[in-house]
DNA sequence: ATATTGCATTTTGTATACAAAATACAATAT
DNA sequence: ATATTGTATTTTGTATACAAAATGCAATAT
């Protein structure tokens, strides 16, 4: 009756979903026995999944106390954006040096559904935006780079599928990056990729500052 | 009789040591029961430690087949150096923006034992070099940055405590970075930090190419 | 001699068991 | 009423148990 593949994998996916959807609330303790029963598995593969989530900053383990859903604060979100600026900048540079037309095509394809559209579906665009940034990393073929980009998870969780800036604004920036990659101008590609993240980071900081002061 | 802290932690440290020391050889399969017995623990905390090592690229799990000590190849080492260039460059920039004299002092202190020395102990300097680069990251206070810098482990494993370049050469570069941070010149600090990693990467590539061709 | 099949052994992935630490809470003291 | 202690309950960390997959190897076929 038992089907062997790797139980911890689907458990990991499900838990991640639960955290992003707020089924597991920030700060909430993950009582292993309860979640294991809920998912119909034992604690062993669950713990494996939780350890992976911990490595991705989505949960935090306090020894002998328990594992808790993390609540990324303002500073951490900013910090993640600094990392993204560095890594996506490098990714753009590496792509520009490859002179590969298939790369350009794949990057452009992220946004073709939205070109020449009067009304852009925000949710769809936000998903496309996320894909674009992940693709930028993946297309470099740099495995360690791709593996350490996992912390974009935090970004997903915090921003959800909302957008930091309006599509009109970011669309233009995306194509500036793509065009620099296409012409093989690695310095410019890196510059644009970094400026893009930097701008979003600054907007985010403002939003959070506003939100925090309103709550006072 | 059982002392509770977190067994997987010392197991992780010991396994990492065994991998770096070649007690566990590249490509070798880690038979859980055997290692568990060797370390006098059960498979449960051992598996936890192995999962952490997997996240750090030191071992590789092939489901249903086993967990194997990884053998980083030339491409991966180069790829890691691209990541380091991006991240350490950003770190230097962030430190320069902080205008904190204690940061300068701590960075300088890494190399004070070697200043004005005629003969530099290579092993000691290699250790200092490693500390300097880790400190550069840590002093930013950027937690996600620090957490994703773990892949420097691969570096340690591959290079061991040898040096890519002679101390005279890198010492000068280190102080260029430190001085740029001290004067608060973030652009220059980033430039120097990146150039430093880039040069080592290029030397490494040459060394490996030479070694590989000799073996043919 | 080499390839193939079948069976015994090993090893993995998961579930369960159990001791120690953490927690909750009631009973008592201040 | 609040603080404190002691005890029952929960939960964690680790060890063990067990079924299914992987592996090794001998016996047989080609």
UniProtKB/TrEMBL annotation, chains A, B:
Top-level taxon of origin: Bacteria
GO molecular function: DNA binding; DNA-binding transcription factor activity
Keyword Transcription: yes
Domain HTH gntR-type stretches: 5-72
Pfam families in the record: FCD (PF07729), GntR (PF00392)
SMART domains, sorted: FCD, HTH_GNTR
Protein name: HTH gntR-type domain-containing protein
């Amino acid at each position: 009756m038992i089907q062997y593949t790797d139980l911890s994998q689907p458990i990991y996916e499900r838990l991640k979903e639960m955290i992003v959807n707020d089924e597991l609330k920030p700060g909430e303790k993950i009582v292993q026995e309860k979640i294991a029963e809920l998912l119909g598995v034992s604690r062993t593969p669950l713990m494996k999944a939780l350890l992976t989530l911990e490595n991705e900053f989505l949960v935090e383990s306090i020894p002998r106390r328990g594992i808790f859903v993390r609540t990324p604060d303002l500073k951490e979100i900013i910090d993640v954006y600094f990392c993204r600026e560095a890594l996506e900048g490098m990714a753009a540079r590496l792509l520009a040096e490859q002179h590969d037309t298939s790369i350009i095509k794949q990057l452009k394809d992220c946004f073709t559904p939205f070109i020449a559209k009067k009304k852009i579906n925000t949710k769809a665009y936000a998903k496309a935006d996320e894909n674009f940034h992940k693709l930028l990393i993946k297309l470099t073929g740099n495995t360690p780079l791709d593996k350490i980009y996992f912390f974009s998870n935090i970004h997903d969780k915090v921003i959800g599928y909302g957008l930091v800036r309006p599509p009109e604004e970011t669309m233009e920036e995306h194509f500036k990056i793509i065009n620099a990659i296409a012409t093989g101008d690695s310095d410019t590609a890196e510059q644009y990729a970094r400026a893009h993240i930097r701008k979003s980071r600054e907007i985010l900081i403002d939003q959070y500052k506003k939100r925090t002061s309103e709550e006072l």
